[in-house]
């Protein structure tokens, strides 16, 4: 059996001397049928060239450069070089001179064969860097021999080569299977190539005959190549599959078809040349090259029922999915399709897989990927993990080698037989098969999750609207899909029509200026068609890809530019993306309010995949319109790009605000910035009773008593001396501190007296009596029990305010009968919006003081005297405060989360820092105190729940929320030691409150902003899908109540009866039966209800009441029995903060930057503030 490439050709030539060996088609109409060479002529011309080379001093072991274009003489030139024997080094005439010079120097090239037609170009490119001497010219061969010598000292280059060689040899010692080695002189080289250099400088690869010959012999057997076959030379000489294509044909007596380089760039003409003129039977190509034909030509010509193509071998890139391959074939086609895999470093192919006919004809395949298949003869493959251990199931990097399948890289002069080379490709081992995942450098982390770019590309290509595509990261993190639309679309036909016009221009050699950018998109083409197609593709992708895999940008192009190796020229596509970005930058200079509105609407619709004619309502919420957190991030990035700004807080507005909020935010960040105004300060009215406007945001200064956030208190807090009093928090929670019974009261001191005389069963927690009746339940000093007032609720007709006066809404005669009103006692300016809910600490004892703790977006944390609003202390923390505070079990610390990712533990009496704990992202969740263990439990946008011990100053445990940031606040059920938390990825988790171990999880497709609240038997939560839900403590859903809008409000659980009260963005407050979720009553407000209701006992003897706020600035007090209005008042700003009530005082934060204390009194008048 022949041991070298040229020996295989000589054997075939002896058997088939009269048959056509080579056919060349220039594509010219005058060159009908092309020119051809028989095997006898091929052998004769090759022998002639070998003799000429020897005559001019080119002897054994030289590497000869070959500077030429594909033509009829190419095989005889290669044969003549191999017979010296020497190796050939193809040099690409279209490559940059600098790259070619580097290759020449690295290979120490002394001679180069130059096609006579290209001699002048060769001299012009390299005469300034190389000493060139034309040693001989052979017109009959159309070839010249050029002697070369570098003009630049090669000392440095040689030193580098030597160093590289030593490093490689040292590194290979650990990978060898044998101590034996072979030198270059022992290994007869066939050819020398260089890698593409896409991930660094190109590597030189020297390929011996013993490495490539088994490849060709095995593939010739698999493809059943016979003398009647026609094999197309699809690959350029610099790409090693060209060796396989050439010698598959010439070693079997078959015909090798070569076409002019220009024809390869013209898909339609190439298809005619291959399948109409020459009836090609064997085609080896990259998937990208094949996709250039387009789906129509593939179905009607290449893979039609009567196609001449017998074998299609795809390699060099990830193989298209079975679904895509099926879309290329017409029913009745019998072409055998192979998936080939290999690397240039172990030239050429390593594995093969013949795709079964059943896979190509069935729509019900079990996989979306085609396996890499089995190793070719003489090849060994193995998969190793990052530690170098063999992988038999799972992911790892593929290594390739074999005893004789070894090449020399760069400066290597010695090689170890059996060496295994790292491929740089990641694969999945599953059920004994290898599945390609992607290049190591194409496995990226995006939004904290691993993304396989090649897998994303396959999914995009599977869409009916997509002909082909390329996917890559631009600007480091933006995922961009460059898509060639399917020819069946009108927009695509417009693009491709112009692209075909440019094909004819290439053939004539003329320069045709078309009204389009360099990729063929005409400014006069219908922008609506393109925009509609882009939106349709984005919408489809949102259904088939996970959020972290959806491209940030879809860019339509008429075709994918190719490298000389037939792969996607990604650098060219990225340049096009940059040009688009620059065009956007130019547009930013002419930004106005009008076109800013157009831009925002366009980006909103594109991100959400909405139709162009969809009308966006000002109160539309991004998440409720079908978006998710990752789409919000994409929307945020696109706005920044379009406006040329990087507006702080924009992402939070997108997640939490309405469309109008987003519009206001970016308007301030762009237009007002250009006018020299503070983009973060909305224009506002003066506060009533104040002689000046609210302080501008950037003029906020900490008072003298403020300490820096990082300052920690020296000394020790005396936790053994517990404060006695009450903590009042949102959702009607009142915690009694420092008393022997440690109860949580329903409302306030007066309500406490009333509830003690009543007989009721506690709903939400066991009473002290419940614990005493159960010997196994022990109540420590920190044990807490909750009690609620008893009241009867009847279902009556909803009562709506009859007055159109927004300043005061009264419930007709019913309100007059009750005689309640709200008026402002005091207000405190925090400097920016107050979305956090206040927390009250009422201390008993000689002072009997009550303090309001509340944070603001101004970074301020204020401690205010409840009765007067006087500032006890104020701290400026590290970032914005949206989290409501909590009071530690000892009553000595106030705990609050911050946008800077810190959880601050501040002293109640002075505001000094006791401790800070750093999480991985912003903290918007409100802390919850476990009064049994003393732990502070809080969620973070980093996706974790933390249990913090303020005394020990350490984290006792943390638990991952199983994906998604945690916005809502945790909820405790102390008797059962259960902790509930919800995430923005739609998960409701139940954990063990002591250990943090998950007990059960409930998942939904929409995020949870609402905080869970629990009773003795149930846990309740609202969802942005518009529902209020009840679960038992084992995780089973008991009921679901549908509102007409998303639910951001958190439920407030009442005690006896029992009831749950919750608001909705439909503007209603709902009172539901806890047992079955049935509606007891509902009340329609004049805005939306984001905040949490507060159920309390009236200090004026009017029974049980519900305090709530609507986003239009209205504070409402309702009768808890029937939902009728008792009082209301309007504040001059939006309300997202939840009210808290103590005695006759209601405290709430407002987005006009103030904290208000309202007096609930018996007067029948009311006020507009």
TrEMBL record:
SMART domains xrefs: PQQ
InterPro entries: AASDH_AMP (IPR048005), ACP-like_sf (IPR036736), AMP-bd_C_sf (IPR045851), AMP-binding_CS (IPR020845), AMP-dep_synth/lig_dom (IPR000873), ANL_N_sf (IPR042099), Beta-ala_Activ/Resist (IPR052091), PP-bd_ACP (IPR009081)
UniProt feature, compositional bias: Polar residues: 770-783
Keywords associated with the record: Lipid metabolism
Residue ranges of domain AMP-dependent synthetase/ligase in the record: 10-403
Region (Disordered): 680-707, 756-783
Domain Carrier, residue spans: 599-640
Domain Pyrrolo-quinoline quinone repeat: 830-1160
Domain of life: Eukaryota
Descriptive protein name: Carrier domain-containing protein
